[in-house]
Amino acid sequence: MTYCVGLLLNEGMVLLSDTRTNAGLDNIATYRKMFHFENPGERIITVLTAGSLSVTQTTIARLRDAIDSPDATPQTSVLLAPTMLAVAEIIGDVLAQVRRDIDEKLSMAQGASATMIVAGQRKGGGMRMFLIYPEGNFIEATEDTPFLQIGEHKYGKPILDRVVKPTTSLSDAQKAVLLSMDSTLRSNLSVGMPLDLCVVNRDEFRIDTLRRIEAGDESFRAMSDAWSHALRDGFSQISI
Amino acid sequence: MTYCVGLLLNEGMVLLSDTRTNAGLDNIATYRKMFHFENPGERIITVLTAGSLSVTQTTIARLRDAIDSPDATPQTSVLLAPTMLAVAEIIGDVLAQVRRDIDEKLSMAQGASATMIVAGQRKGGGMRMFLIYPEGNFIEATEDTPFLQIGEHKYGKPILDRVVKPTTSLSDAQKAVLLSMDSTLRSNLSVGMPLDLCVVNRDEFRIDTLRRIEAGDESFRAMSDAWSHALRDGFSQISI
C-alpha cells in the first residue's frame, strides 16, 4: 500500500508521500510516488500516486509523452492546459484510459486501479488540489477540508483532523504531514521510508523545498521521538 | 460500522464498544455490541461484536439458548465449557454456523459476516482474550500484542501502539481505550456514542465496572478536550 497526503493552505501547499511498493509481503520495493510537472515561474503541478504500480507508472509516462510530443495541445499537455481544472481533467482521463487498457489484459477479478492527488498552480490562476478517483472523476480540497489523502489514510487522519486549518503555516503543515506519516508508519507495515516531501509557496509557481527523508534521517527520528514523548506526557496528565 | 477494542493486561482486562449500527447512511440505530455471560465468582465472559447485526444477534441468541437449554453440556454452553479456549471454540463454531445459515438466504454477493472479541476468565484458569473471525477460527492476545480490535480499527491504533503494555494499569487502560475511541469518533461517522465500557479485575471472575457513556457525558467530553489540548500543545512544541 501507500500513504500520500496533500495540504492546501493560504500560504501554499505541502505534499508528502512514502515510497513502499509491494506485490505480496515478500516482494517489497522502493518506488517514487511523487512526480512534478514544472515550468518554473509559470506553473507547478505535483502528482501523488497510490494503487497499482502498472497503472500509475503508465499514467505518468503517458502524461510525459503528451508534454514532449510535437503535437502537444492545451487538451493533451498538462503544461499547456489553460487551468488547473483542465489539468485534473487531462490526468483523470489518462488514468481512466490506462486503467481500462490494463483491465482488458487482466481478468475482472484482478482489476488494477489507482488514485492520485494532483495539486498545483499556474500563473494567473489559484492554487488547487484534486483527488482523482480510478474512474477519472475527482473531488477538490476546500477551505472546510484543506487536506486530501490517498492509500492507507486512516491511521494518520486524527492528527490532521485536529491541527490542520487553511491558516496553518507551511512550517506547521510540514510537521503535521510528517507526524501523520509517522503514525501510519508505526501502525502499518505496507507503508515505508524513505519519504518525499514537497513544499510550494503560493504565487511562486515553482517548487520551494523538495526533500527526501531516508530511513536513518536524524531530524525525522528526533521529531518522531519528541512526538511520542509529547503523546505519553499528555496521556499521563489526563485524568478520567 | 463499529469500533470495539479489548486490552488484556496483568491487572485484568478493559473492553470498550460503540453502539452505532447502520444499514446505509440514512438508517442509523443504536444497538449494544457488548454482551456478558457471567457466573459471578466462577467465570466472566465478555463478547464484543462487529459486522452484520443479523449475524451477531443470532449468534448471541443461540449462545444464550444453549446456556438455558436443559440439555446444556460443556460442549454447548459457554458457562460450562472447561476452559476459555473451549469457550472461544464454541463461539467460533456458532458464529460460523449462523453465517452459513444466513448466507444461504442471501445471494453470494451480499454475504453477511461478523467478527467478535471474546474475553474472560474462569476459576482455575488464566484470563484470555480472542479475536474470532467470520469463519470461526481465532487468534489470541499475547504479551507482545496485549490488545485486539474489531471494526474501524485504524484511526484508534496509533495511540494503543504507543501506550499499551501488559504492565499498563487498569486506570491508564481505560484512558487509552477511551482516547482510542475518541480518535475514531472524530474521524469516522459510522462509529457513534453511546459507549459501553467494561473492566474486569484478574482472578475476581466478575465484572468490576460497567459504564455506559452517553453522548453528553461530561467526564468523557472533558477527557476528549484535555487530549485535544495535549495534542495541540505537544504539536506546537515540536520543532522540525
Automatic annotation (TrEMBL), chains A, B:
Record SUPFAM superfamilies: N-terminal nucleophile aminohydrolases (Ntn hydrolases) (SSF56235)
Domain of life: Bacteria
Spans traversing the lipid bilayer: none
Descriptive protein name: Peptidase
